[in-house]
What we know:
Two copies of one chain form a homodimer.
Chain A: E1 2-10, E2 16-25, E3 28-33, E4 42-45, E5 50-53, E6 55-60, H1 76-88, H2 93-109, E7 112-118, H3 122-132, E8 135-139, H4 149-159, E9 166-172, H5 180-193, E10 197-201, H6 205-215, H7 219-225, E11 234-237, H8 243-251, E12 255-258, H9 260-265, H10 273-278, E13 282-285, H11 298-313, H12 321-336, E14 351-354, H13 367-374, E15 380-385, E16 388-392, E17 395-396, H14 402-420
Parallel strand pairs in A: 1-4, 1-5, 6-7, 7-8, 8-9, 9-10, 10-11, 11-12, 12-13
Antiparallel strand pairs in A: 1-2, 2-3, 5-14, 14-15, 15-16, 16-17
Amino acid sequence: MIRFYNCRILTENYEIAENSELWVKDNKIEYIGKHKEGVFEREIDCKGNILMPGFKNAHTHSPMTFLRSYADDLPLDRWLNEMVFPMEARLTEEDAYYLTKLAVAEYICSGITSAFDMYLFPHATAEAVRDTGFRMTLCGAVNNFTSSPKELEESYIKYNNYCENVSFQLGFHAEYTTDRSILEDIGAIAKRYRAPVSAHCSETKKEVEECIQRHGKSPVELFNDLGLIDYGGSLFHCVHLSDKDIEILKEKDITAVTNPASNCKLASGIAPLSVLDERGVRLAIGTDGPASNNALSMFREMYLATALQKIRQNDASALVPERVIEMACKNGAYAMGTDNDCLKEGRLADITVIDMHRPNMQPENNILKNIVYSGGNENIALTMVNGSILYEKGEFYIGEDIERLYEKCRSITERIKKASVGTLF
Amino acid sequence: MIRFYNCRILTENYEIAENSELWVKDNKIEYIGKHKEGVFEREIDCKGNILMPGFKNAHTHSPMTFLRSYADDLPLDRWLNEMVFPMEARLTEEDAYYLTKLAVAEYICSGITSAFDMYLFPHATAEAVRDTGFRMTLCGAVNNFTSSPKELEESYIKYNNYCENVSFQLGFHAEYTTDRSILEDIGAIAKRYRAPVSAHCSETKKEVEECIQRHGKSPVELFNDLGLIDYGGSLFHCVHLSDKDIEILKEKDITAVTNPASNCKLASGIAPLSVLDERGVRLAIGTDGPASNNALSMFREMYLATALQKIRQNDASALVPERVIEMACKNGAYAMGTDNDCLKEGRLADITVIDMHRPNMQPENNILKNIVYSGGNENIALTMVNGSILYEKGEFYIGEDIERLYEKCRSITERIKKASVGTLF
């Protein structure tokens, strides 16, 4: 049993419980409360720092670390077709394994304890998650070019029975990459398992306009009409939504996952988070992949979620930090279907420790506002996933030497870049 | 003499010089180049990390650390009148001294080596700068309520002859807080010393509209017509500019200092940086004060400078990172009039070391893009100002125990908050 003492704990109700301690037994939270006697393998003096549930990165593409700073400053369609797809075509299962591990290292530096990951190599990703001790919900990425409804169903069964840190949800890439017949087949699988389905949705204006041309309706309407979201699910981005779209999201209990940094960088727009929140749509937050963000930091995303809303709404009171933290912790857990939404006895021990002994966290007029408005990765003192400490004081405990991992990922990247010369340029 | 070896150095031309070393003698850069023999007091193995000129925080209000997370989620006028001014009225010289030190600690965590600081207690700020070893250019803050042209002139003489890390520039708060007669007096001082003048300018739409009502012209036009900017200067924020304003900025060689995080958070808008840059106006970057940002991180500002332009221009290629780094390093130095714009023999030794051995910096497809798009304070391994190391591996060397400083700033904040009860609420 591990004992965290001398803590301040962010409670289920987003209040700060002073002078608290938290015990972890195996992979769960055993006790939260005032000091009492116990026997422990390790006792960690938190020095008054904040224990909070780890952040949930509700949309990402982990293996894309190799494309960080490779294809920047381009609009989404050129970025995808000219730079990302040709490089991805050269990626192997083994590459994806190491590149995912690099993303995991970055997640835990940012207090992230689980990620909702959509990519092409579910097996490599699942192995990387198992081997690092991180937690992920994999999301199907079916489209016209890769994978199929059949493979999706196989993955759904396989990776929901793979290891305790891995789960799988039905999903496809996006309307603009996936024919209607494939969507219909996925709808049938969703119905058979009464399972949620997730996908990219309404990320750019162009995507929505072309969908309307093709199908006479928006992506959200199309997914709804095809029965794809009858059992819930998450829609990623949700930048360009109609009133009718928002009604459907609410009615079908969909989580709208926002990716503010990526939407800025690719000039896709600012998602209507305040409107969605007021209309009662559940919001979660994701980094998107390292090729389009490029950081995998939940501090950046949380800050942008609120700061950009103020610009969008022309209202400095829009989307307050307290709400953003709820999105980043609780709502992300709902989207992924994991039992780690808050710090509570019996919940999974997915915890991060916020170092308040840094200038950007002082003074403490409002701790939650400090975290969202001033916080950064430098404030992550420790990250625990499933009861194991994966990151502490700048050191990584992910079953892999970090320098060796950097070297491996650099050599993968160089190999793919070399192979691309002459075809890309 | 201090030797940094095993470095990659960001050159004057924003290229990376591999396998380099850099020597610091007293407060200056003595040598940059390949290995050669020398005698040193200390030799620092940089492990392949990037040595670059420190970031210049070209607009801030350092002592406002006590207001961090105190008055968030309000528009500029209510934020200023209802929350900031009543709290500031209770601030003492001694308070400002410690609160500035807290800001300095935060700056050096973010690789910032100098700041252009506008606030009410120049003496307290100058003392804090001298005692920490940081570098600041103080900016006059004259307005209808505090200070005067006479005091401004006295400060100009005094703090340009105070200590080698401190300089002073003429300045006033803003048009909307300063009567025309005061502006005219400041114009006369500027003329007498042939000195630049700096001020807040065109931060909100309301400010510009009211200035036009009062004076029949925009703030930039007014300052120009009054001869205030005949010898250059910096205008802070520059969010709402007309074509004519932009022409004036160019003609008078003014630095437009952008504060993207603050402009978002207060819903002031997105400054037209791409337009200014294309029109040849020099741009620098500042954090603004901790009451309106709330972080004092140049990584946040650099990221937002480019990311928000992409949204504003609806163009993912807008304002590339390479340009943003130049604004954050070189142009800020120009604004402050300090000889620390780049790493070059003879320049002031204001240096920061970027830790590339972190997951967010890997792989290295493009180091400058990594710094702007993925970098954060966790990547600052060391910060040197004027030849002295003020921050290294998370430890502070600013002549003050950091925990004592936190405690001091917390108690100042609590005292002022208590004194404000009953008057504010």
